[in-house]
């Protein structure tokens, strides 16, 4: 049996590897000139890897650890309570640990030990938090950190989806955030090994009107197979640039209407001087950009590389300034906030994910009133099967491990449809060893 995998991100690669290991004929089609999708490790900006895309493993129980342990990759544990500084609303800087112990109103925005109150069906995240008692200061803290990490402002986030994710994240994913010191591309290259991958091959149409699938690419090439796994970014699907014939069923269209791609950018700087003590890995600022961390942390280097992570309206406010203006504005904001007017950058880079035509955003979120949209998008419609970060369960959304697991799930669905047993080696949910 044969399968086309559309997209060579983490979901597509994990699906293709699983199918190939099971003896399926697999071709992977990728629009970009590289593999990895939103995992994008740069090796020329500094003397150590710098992630222009996904950066962390979120949780010590997730499936990625099986590969990390298999490859013997070293990781750095981002111990936020010890190595992060927070600019408090009162104007002083505290360690994360001090901020949480001294300010209960701040601590709840990190622990998320909320009252057992269910969201209303169409309620957004900001309205929900206000209803259960969060004041304006707490909402600003949420916007600066949690909502920024979610990829969009609180008014756009489904409270039901967020609560569902919060309630199961620790149990299902485990605790902690970890960086692969040798770069995320170690995982990407491992999954891609031995696969037949065609780069620079954007898709124009997917015909699934018959018993199989016929895919036509921009250069006129036609590919045919028994089935296809759609592992494209949500932003690409929402742009409606790929024609499905026949059109997608109503439940699939409804799912797409309930999901959006958050505008996420990264601004990366090689600074001419340290901006904090060597024990500090991250800074939670009170201005735009609100979140900074150092890719140099944990490496034996004299480089001072810092990344600003920005999403939602904050990202759009920077992007309207243009690339040079955005980079200057973010660095100027950091100088003022730290009181370091002499801080300069010898090199800088803006990774503009919303502007990437083959991504069109950072990662997905569920709109208010559309709880369950992810599950509907993930449902198989043979001979089409669905994978990608937007198809992940809520506690795995916006993560690399979530994308990887959707690829495994979609591949198993193809194999079950074709009545082919899945190889044990591709079932990565076994309990991992303790992370490094």
Strand order of the largest sheet: 8-7-18-19-20-17-21
CATH topology-level fold name of the domain at 2-38 and 183-260 and 363-426: FAD/NAD(P)-binding domain
Number of helices: 15
Amino-to-carboxy terminus distance? 40 Å
> What's the CATH C level of the domain at 2-38 and 183-260 and 363-426?
Alpha Beta
Concise synopsis of the structure shown:
With 436 residues, the protein is an alpha/beta fold. Helices cover 33% and strands 21% of the residues. The longest helix is centred in the last third of the chain and has 18 residues.
Task: Describe this structure as you would to a colleague.
- This protein has 436 residues and is of the alpha/beta class.
- Among the domains are: 2-38 and 183-260 and 363-426, FAD/NAD(P)-binding domain; 97-173, no CATH class.
- The protein has 15 helices and 23 strands.
- The strands form six sheets. A seven-stranded mixed beta sheet has the order 8-7-18-19-20-17-21. The chain has a five-stranded parallel beta sheet with strand order 10-2-1-14-23, with helices on one face.
- A hairpin with a 5-residue loop joins β11 and β12.
- α1 packs parallel to α15, α4 crosses α5 (104-111) and α5 (104-111) packs parallel to α7.
- The two termini are 40 Å apart.
